[in-house]
Specification:
Elements: E1 2-3, H1 8-17, H2 19-26, E2 29-30, E3 50-53, E4 68-71, H3 74-83, H4 89-99, H5 103-106, H6 116-122, H7 127-132
Parallel strand pairs: 1-2, 3-4
Length: 133
């Protein structure tokens, strides 16, 4: 299991919810936020590995030499991580029945402009300065 939050904002939210600590207890492979395995930047998977990834790209050898990479939703990736393999349709549907009742608590869209930490860090930048560049 490799965990690489897409942004620092996502990492902060996962830490706030206690989810990131759960990931850290499950794997030694927690990466800094941003493109990691999806670009082969910090690390690559073993040769000939089978990977379920939530990244947006699937080019040959991108994650590792001769790796079979399957792009998926976060839900499929989580179920695959739990099972240690790609789930069957039945396994997926069964797991989703457990997720659906809590969907309002699970799913949220993170907006940079609505998080005070990020508002403070960019609040001094004038928009017209950015637009001139």
């Amino acid at each position: 299991l490799w965990v690489a939050p897409p942004t620092r904002m996502d990492e902060a939210q996962l830490k706030k919810e206690g989810v990131y600590q759960t990931f850290e207890s499950l794997t030694q492979h927690t990466e800094i936020p941003g493109c990691s395995l999806c670009m082969g930047n910090q690390a690559r998977v073993k040769d000939n590995a089978t990977v379920v990834s939530t990244s947006t790209r699937n080019f040959p050898n991108r994650l590792g030499d001769d790796a079979d990479v399957y792009l998926s939703s976060a839900e499929v990736a989580a179920i695959a991580a739990k099972l240690g393999r790609i789930p069957t349709v039945e396994e997926y549907l069964s797991a989703m029945q457990g997720i659906e009742p809590a969907s309002n608590d699970i799913y949220q869209y993170l907006n940079f402009d609505q998080i005070s930490q990020y508002q403070k860090s960019v609040g001094h930048i004038a928009l017209d300065t950015i637009l001139k560049e």
